[in-house]
Amino acid sequence: MTDGVKDKMVTRKPASGNQRTVFQVEGITCLDCARKFEQAVGAMPGVISVSLNAMTGRLMLEGQSDLEKMRRLGQEEN
């Protein structure tokens, strides 16, 4: 499903106090793959919200993120 989740690009804390992080995801080939990956990441503990743009590969996550777990999710779906 993905070639991998790269290191985080930006981390910031908005007024809500929840951490927001942007990641670059490579290898998303279709909207269905993006939806499945987005749902899998959204189900991870500590994740409040997630949005993946299939065209750019940009994943915006609010809450706690675990880069290694996200990388494994992408590998499991391939």
Protein model, in words:
This protein is α+β, with helices and mostly antiparallel strands and 78 residues long. It is built from 2 helices and 4 strands, in the order ββαββα. A 4-stranded antiparallel β-sheet has the order 1-2-4-3.
Q: Which range best describes the helical content: under 10%, 10-25%, 25-40%, 40-55%, 55-70% or over 70%?
A: 25-40%
Poorly predicted sequence stretches spanning 5 or more consecutive residues: none
Tally of contiguous helical segments: 2
Spatial shape: globular
Cα end-to-end separation: 5 Å
Share in β-strands:
35-45%
* N to C succession of SSEs: EEHEEH
Overall radius of gyration: 12 Å
Structural class by secondary-structure content = alpha+beta
- Main β-sheet description: 4 strands, antiparallel
Number of strands: 4
Strand order in the largest sheet: 1-2-4-3
Average pLDDT confidence is 78
